[in-house]
Amino acid sequence: MPRSISLSFQNEKKKKKKMMPFSFNLIVVLIVWLSFVPIGVLAAEHQTHERHEQKKLRFGPEGEFKILQVADMHYANGKSTSCLDVLPSQVRGCSDLNTSAFIHRMILAERPHLIVFTGDNIFGFDATDAAKSLNAAFAPAIESNIPWTAVLGNHDQESTLSREGVIKHIVGLKNTLSQVNPLNVEFIDGFGNYNLEVGGVQGSSFENKSVLNLYFLDSGDYSTVPSIPGYGWIKASQQFWFQRTSSKLRRAYDSKPQAQKGPAPGLAYFHIPLPEFASFDSSNFTGVKQEGISSASVNSGFFTTMVEAGDVKAVFTGHDHLNDFCGELTGIQLCYAGGFGYHAYGKAGWSRRARVVVATLEKLEKGDWGGVKSIKTWKRLDDQHLTAIDGQALWSKRSSGSRRKKRIPSA
């Protein structure tokens, strides 16, 4: 071997010897670090995605998708928590368990494909252990084996868990499709912003398309800006995420196979109503308005954002327990569910209630199912017969497609 090559070879060996301790030490450090990281933390994102894939939402073989909305349970400590604003004859023995019983009755009566809890799921001030209260509040949904989701209200974080802690606990419960926040989003305000896609009937030409899009947002709790009093609102970062998600879903719906014109209809769920809910009076809504609209004291523009996106056909909120109306504004239905929980404030003699929404698909030739044809809603009361009231059409493909711009008279 030539001397120059021999020296070069020896130098390389020396370099490798110097590098080996460093590389070995780095590997040891990594192994030790990984041994202390909980497996659940490393696998959480994968498991959540996997669980959602396994429970993909889809229209039933009859061409319908039914959603049960439960607003403002205000669950606390179960049997020891008394009811508020009930008739004198109802006081004795009334507790959080009445709320649980109402959920059970609604599930049996309606057999929904999805249950949506729109915030103030627990009443933090009275819940001594947030985790236990959350477990008990959602127990009827969990036991039903029906997929369910939840967003946060302004009272959920007032017990022993932070706002982030509450949504993380919810995400860990059985059968839920709730998410802490969207994947692959660097920053977004709040906790519990996510969307779900509802596929067409299995075996139909639309089975691989999302024909109904569901948006869930954190409307906040209270303003953190000293000069702005009152409740929170949907922030710019959340609206940006909504816009991007809506655009992405529209592109997918407009693409082959079964390319469509325009977006699939969408529904939005959050807790605190938008300022636009104050646009109605008894002449232009269905239901009742028995208290003021407790929205944020500023308008963050989310209603306009939804109008511009063009896919959301209805918004569903809670927060104001004595309001249960739906009113249409600029092509979007703004709907309350009405108070559900017995530990929430209410009105004696005015039944607790829940809202049901049903989307129905269009029947195509040769028995195939197409996109969504119509969206309807009604409410059920927690009375002896679970009385259904205020049935109404929220949206239909025909009425939407037949709209024309108003002609402006010439001067």
Automatic annotation (TrEMBL):
The primary location reported for this protein is secreted
Kindly list the cofactors needed. Zn(2+)
Q: Which CDD domains match?
A: MPP_Dcr2
Q: Please list the residue ranges annotated as the Calcineurin-like phosphoesterase domain.
A: 65-321
Keyword annotations for this protein, in alphabetical order, are: Glycoprotein, Iron, Metal-binding, Secreted, Signal, Zinc
Gene3D superfamilies the UniProt entry points to? 3.60.21.10
InterPro entries in UniProt: Calcineurin-like_PHP, Metallo-depent_PP-like, PAP14/16/28/29
Extract one GO molecular function annotation from the record.
Answer: metal ion binding
Q: Name one GO cellular component term.
A: cytoplasm
Q: Where in the cell is it found?
A: Secreted
Q: Tell me the protein family, please.
A: Belongs to the metallophosphoesterase superfamily. Purple acid phosphatase family.
Quaternary structure? Answer: Homodimer.
Q: How is this protein named in the record?
A: Phosphoesterase
